[in-house]
Amino acid sequence: MAAPKRGRSSSAQSKPGRTLALILIAIVALTGGMFLSGHTTPRLGIDLAGGTSITLEAKAEQGSAINKANMNTAVDIMNRRVNGLGVSEAEVQTQGDRNIIVNIPKGTNSKEARDQVGTTAKLYFRPVLAQDATGPAAATSPSPSASGSSNASPSPSASKSGTGEKATSSSSPSASATSQGRAVTDALKADATPSASAGASSSASPSAPASTAPSAAQAKLQAQYTALDCSKKAQRTKAGEGAKPGDTTVGCGEYSGVWYKYLLGPAAVAGTEVKKAQAVFDTQNAAGWQVTMTFNSKGAKKFADITGQLAKNTQPQNEFGIVLDGQVVSSPTVSSSITGGSAQISGSFTQDEAQNLANMLSYGALPLSFKEQSVTTVTAALGGDQLHAGLLAGAIGLFLVVIYLVAYYRGLSLVAMASLLVSGILTYVLMALLGPAIGFALNLPAVCGAIVAIGITADSFIVYFERIRDEIREGRSLRPAVERAWPRARRTILVSDFVSFLAAAVLFIVTVGKVQGFAFTLGLTTVLDVVVVFFFTKPLMTLLARRKFFASGSKWSGLDPKSLGAKPPLRRTRRPAPAHTKEA
After folding, report:
1. What is the assigned CATH class of domain 123-135+233-347?
2. Where is the SecDF P1 head subdomain domain (predicted)?
3. Domain 26-43+379-564 maps to which CATH number in 1.20.1640.10, 3.30.2010.10, 3.60.110.10, 1.10.3520.10?
4. What is the DSSP letter of 140?
5. What is the predicted pLDDT for the residue at 175?
6. How confident is the model at residue 580 (pLDDT cuts 50, 70, 90)?
7. pLDDT the model gives residue 28
8. What is the rounded CA–CA span in Å between residue 181 and residue 259?
9. Where are the domains of the chain?
10. C-alpha to C-alpha distance for 204 and 183, rounded to whole angstroms
11. Runs of H (alpha helix) within 410-536
12. E-strand spans in 379-481?
């Protein structure tokens, strides 16, 4: 019976070449992906590359006050709009009591970000009383249809879900054939009269009695709606300006390049009552991109009431307009009362359109309205000088680390420098890829985080090297010393890196702005340090321990037993048996 073997030899120890090949393949794949994506350099923050700075001034309206709480809420919502994970380095901060400054770095879609920030009015769900296409493109717009599009009224089986029924956006706004003149007045009366029939439509009879003559306010709104041309920017910018939530107003909306004008009733649901909205892709019913939204308890009741009323009307009065900043961003139709506090808007959405609508529903309900005061371009001259100074400081620090490694560890310094090089390549490639992926922007604090990571990475190598040298001092040869030193060094490295990563994670969560860039970079490089030590440094040391230069303990290898003060090898010898004298 064979005796059991002493100790264990893992596959990573017996096949270090395979481990090195895997990490080198990963580096090549990531580098290739970087070049294929076309983003070969990290995206720079506003302090390094410049960008756009937007100044917004808060305006007090009925029911809102300019105070610290409302301003902080607005900053938080704007920050979520333009900054996502918080690493794209878009800055949103207050200035004084009434202003908010938004800094958008170069390389970001500044136009889209500016549109999202500038769209700061309150969000409301208003019933549609009438609609009509305007401008030169109106002649080629879809012909009016009394029944709407094929997806305007979903079947009951398709509109039910576990959390409530779904409202489906019509695939094209259908212009009302009787949305002008007397019909608009009748729509206003139907909306204003509590006893009006729920099925009233904009096609009222022209021979209405004289007692139903429009009031002065209704006549003024009718004239405003008739004269509105939403294809002209000046007119649609002022559409609905100054309207209060309880007022009947007008608005504009665009679909497939055609502008439509809307006559909208009083707000039924406020955007503050939307708890959550997100864009989802429906793979089961092949409905494409959709927007799901969930209301709070108060909003759910209001939404059920208004959709129950709208479902009894004919088009376009069975639609509700989602109105943001006077513009109708969507006008879904309703076929039945939507209960349960959840709804779904479907239509011919692209992914970007669905995501933008979800963002507006989620973050559109600001406690204040804002006016864009100024938009300026920020240069990166100062940031560029600071970057050069930071890179110079990093280069000097790296040079001093290399000098120390060469002087103290000699041949082992080659392992440390190779590991630092691999860590640097991985850090650079991932920063370049994370720019377009999650909007990561490299700012000055992030550069500082990368420089600090040099010390963290070098510290891991030193821990392992010192464990190996301790084993050699105990009288062991290099190959067993490399394997015996690894478990103890591994525990120390993992604990040290865990503490650094925990500090970076806490810093990322509790801070905002540029400090998050420092924390993100520090956390990223800490994770990469573990990867490099486990999959590059350790296998490389296993291979070098089999080479004569290191295994023989050369004076220039940094592992000379004599220089380290090694003890002679401990050998077990059989103790001689005591001599027994024979008695004469």
Report:
1. alpha beta
2. 262-367
3. 1.20.1640.10
4. G
5. 36
6. low
7. 92
8. 20
9. 26-43+379-564, 51-120+372-377, 123-135+233-347
10. 6
11. 412-438, 444-473, 478-510, 514-532
12. none
